[in-house]
Amino acid sequence: MPSKVPYSLIDLLAHPSRPRRPAKIRCLKETSQLRPPIHSRLLSTSSRRLETSTTEQPRPRWSYTPERMTAPVTLKNRKPKNEFAVNESQEKLDAFYNKLLGDGGDKFLTDEVKWLAVTHKSFDQGRRGYNDRLAFLGKRIVNFQSSLHLLNRSDGTFYDPPDEYDREPFRHPGVDLLPRLTEENRLRITSKLRIATFAQNCGLADVLRWKPRKVENLYGSGADQALAQALYAIVGAVALQRGGEVAVRIVKDRILGQIDFS
User: How far is the first Cα of the chain from the last one, in angstroms, to the nearest whole number?
Assistant: First the structure.
C-alpha cells in the first residue's frame, strides 16, 4: 500500500521560495513581544473610562433625550403646524411651585422630581420619564381628603334627597353623614374639569410638558386630563419626598381650600 506524503512536504517541494511555517510563528512571537500584556490593556482601558466619567458632568435626566433611545432616521416628516413649545426654564418652574405650594415650595422637591411631576407621557414619547405613577398616588390622597371634606362640611350644601315614598330611613349619629359620600357629591369637588381649571389658574399650563395631538385644539387633545394628572402627580411627589402629613396639609390648604364649589 503506497504511503501518503504529507501535504506540507508537497507544498515545500512545489514552492521552495515560500516562507516556512516556523518563520511565521517566529514573526507572531516577535509581534506578541511588542504588544503589552492583556492585563495592562484592560487596566488602561478602565482607567481611561474612569477619567472620562470623572471629567464629564452628568446631565439632568429631564433635559435631554437619551442617545440610545433616538432613532438615527426620522420616519415621519415634521409638520411645523404641529410643533408645540414647552417650558425649559428652571426659574419659571420654581415660580410655579412657589405659587402652588406657598413660600419655599420650590424646595419641597428635588429638581428631577419637579420636572417629572409636570411631564406627561405624550411629551417626547415618554423617553424622559412621565408622571403616571406619581399621579396614581396623588389622586388617591386627593379623593380621600375630598371625602373627609364632604363629611366635615356644615354649610348645608349637601343634604339627603327626599324619599319618593315618604319612607323614614334609619337614623344614627354614626351613619347620618354617609349619604354625603355619593359619587355625584365627590365629583363636585374632584371632577376632572374642576381640578384642571384650578391647575390652570395656578399657572400649571405654562410649565406643563406635553404634546397635544392638535395644537389648534388643546381641549380636544386632552388638556384638562393632562393638567389634572400633573396636579395629582405633584401631590404624590410631595407625599413620597416629604411625607403624608405634609401632602395632606397641602391638599387641605392649597387645593381643596381654594377650589370654588359653587
Answer: 113
Between the CA atoms of 200, 206, 211 and 214, what dihedral angle is there, to the nearest 10 degrees?
70
Residue 210: alpha-carbon gap to chain centroid: 11
**Residue bearing cell 446631565:** 59
Query: Which segment of 9-13, 46-50, 216-220, 238-242 scores lowest on mean pLDDT?
Result: 46-50
Closest CA to 259 of 186, 208, 172: 186
∠ CA(139), CA(259), CA(233), 5° rounding? Answer: 25
pLDDT tens-digit series, residues 175-234: 777 777 777 777 888 888 899 999 999 999 999 999 998 888 888 888 999 999 999 999
Contact (CB, 8 A) for 247 and 141: yes
Quick one: which of 118, 146, 117 has its CA closest to 242?
117
Residue found under cell 403616571: 132
Distance between CA atoms of 262 and 248, rounded to whole angstroms? 23
3-state secondary structure 147-204: HHHHHHCCCCCCCCCCCCCCCCCCCCCCCCCHHHCCHHHHHHHHCHHHHHHHHHHCCH
Beta bridge partner(s), residue 91: none
Cβ atoms of 74 and 125 within 8 Å: the answer is no
State the number of CA atoms in the 13 A half-sphere of 174 facing the CB: 0
